[in-house]
Amino acid sequence: MANHPLLLMLPLVTSFLVVVNGFVAVAALEEGLSTTTRDTVMGQRHRGGRELDECQLSRLNSLEPTNRIQCEAGTIESWDPNEDEFRCAGVAVVRHIIEPNGLLLPSYTNAPQLIYIVEGKGIQGLVLPGCPETFQSSQQQSQYGGSRERGSAGKREEEFGERGTAGQRGGQLQDQHQKIRHFRQGDILAIPMGAAQWVYNDGDRPIVAIVLLDTTNNHNQLDVNPRRFYLAGNPEQEHPSQGERRRHGQQPFSRRGGQGGGEGTGCRNIFCGIDAEFIAEAFRVDMDLATKLQNENDNRNNIVKVEGRLQVLRPPRREQEMERGSRRETEWETESERHSRRGGRHGGGGYTEEADSNEGDQEENGVEETLCTMRLRENIADPRRADVYTQNVGSINTVNSHNLPILFWLQLSAEHGVLQRNAMMVPHWNMNAHSVIYVIRGQAKVQVVDNNGQAVFDEDLQEGRILVVPQSFAVVKRAQSEEFEWVSFKTSDNAMINAAAGRNSYIRALPDEVVANAYQISREEARRLKYNRKGTTVFRPEGQGRSRRAEA
User: What are the φ/ψ torsions at residue 255 (nearest 5 degrees)?
Assistant: First the structure.
């Protein structure tokens, strides 16, 4: 009886159940921690390094750039991050203008970045640590077409010939690097903090890009000052300190004299402060090449002109492919469509930049998607994929962590809007985020109201200016030009608004009696308030609107 097989197996079965229950408990704990971490990040993202009264604003201003850097192949303009509005939102803003054949030198920042491409098209290289170099040449001269690009690499090839490195085949060095991404007008680009990136204009017109840095993001362990660390060249700081700030009209390519690295000298990339001998040892190169990394005599500034054309490994850009990618983006609108794709309707084929890598539930799976393959781009200017659209009135497009999952980690999102002349966006407030509005073109009458019912902004908002609308402040827009276009950066990965009027408004959800008693009006007037406006977010005022108000 004591040796019955079932009894002998009982300890094994018990152990198995304990292990299974343990796995279930860990999974539940991880899910709970993930939710808790998300809520903590969303609730505390603006606490560190900030005073509690930073958003006590009695007046808002539309802001212009205060610093300008003229470069060899473009211009960099920045807004003063110490303005009260930016300190409230915890962000900094820069505008990059890159001329054709211009290269924005490699750099990284201490804060996550969200970039909107106002004009132009180009390519971007983003270096993510630990990710493989998936772009490789089939032979050494496949892209470079000769020995011109080999230059000083010839000596290094001989020196390392016997080692057989990963980028070497048959004694020849091959080019290999991480993925290169194409972008175009209307794209939002997400850049993690500390990730090095470069940008090249391969088009025939300038690239204009608006860059938002979320300096109070939880991942920024420095301070709230925006800092860009350049890895090459001899650049100027986009956000200089008070003592060295330069206003408009500065001389192009102006430099202070001096030798060696450090503040106020002629060398400002991160290699400038490292001894050349250390650089030579780290890269296993000679001293002459090591000192060239410090670029002490380079006066081209942050954006440089490429000699000839930039020859890098990349898939060819075809307009029809971009068009197909745009059409695919219009399909990413409903949850059912996303689940259909996950079910295999679009199965087969490899990963592409436009392909949806994780359009399902927001779970940290670690298998289906990694940072190396995560989508970092989404176009929000295409009216065919508008979230809100009213013919001859306007449209609203949004991007958040649901359709661009990396924004969950960056805790940022964005909105693109267009209003035709006299069209309005209903009065609303941002429930869980500050909103940084940049006007792409046109102008609009904008009013912003604080918690005391005071209008803290009541002016025309014009092209090229920025308006920061703090969380919970009510805002309304009315286009005054033929077309008013803007992009709003929001400090939450899933920013939400609450409308004061329209079909999806708070007042529509209230009982008639509550509306009547709150505003001291009749039930009939309460119903008119609730049901007269049939639209949701954007509308054009009707001709009889004023007479109706007069009668009331």
Answer: -140, 150
